[in-house]
User: What shape does this take?
Amino acid sequence: MFLALAVVLFSSFNGSVFADDKNTESQATIQLREKGFLACGFAVENLAKFFFDGDFDYLNTWNVNDAANHTAVVTGTKNYADGNIMVTISVTETKAGTCDTSFVALYPSYKTCAQVRETTFKDWKFYSDVLSGVPVYEDPSNSAVAVALEQLKGGCMAIKSGLIFFTKPEPPREIRKVPVEMEPPSDYEVR
Assistant: This one.
């Protein structure tokens, strides 16, 4: 069931979806913000919402002396019928003021890797098998995202990894009412 999450397009992510909406924040994001990791919390939240679709069990790691100027890492898990999905998300603010994220997601399945490949990852292009013969496939919508399919006894482990680059959301703009003088239409008579 949760393998379907693995193929949603990442290219549509931007910082505006969950930023500053306290009602939708995960506990992982709230904790990082409270510890001082402010600039890229929205990026953590966007990826967490994508992978977990709601709250999840998590373990956060951050620089205790200066969270605002260093990378934060969130490791999360959620239980599904096939097993636990486990994801590690790493987020860093760049010098340009954007947010770079990397992730590794583990998806267990009772299906064989051939079945997973033919269903969930059917549109993904073969990339390589240099990882000790484990086949790696490239996301058709983002060449910075790949999945390796490792055959296990009784199933398959899909190991998805990638880079996602976020721009920060625009701050809300003030809307001002500006008086505008209008001329009446030429076919109207003004008295």
Summary: Strands lie at 57-61, 72-80, 83-93, 99-109, 125-131, 134-138, 145-152, 155-166. The CA atoms of residues 16 and 170 lie 8 Å apart.
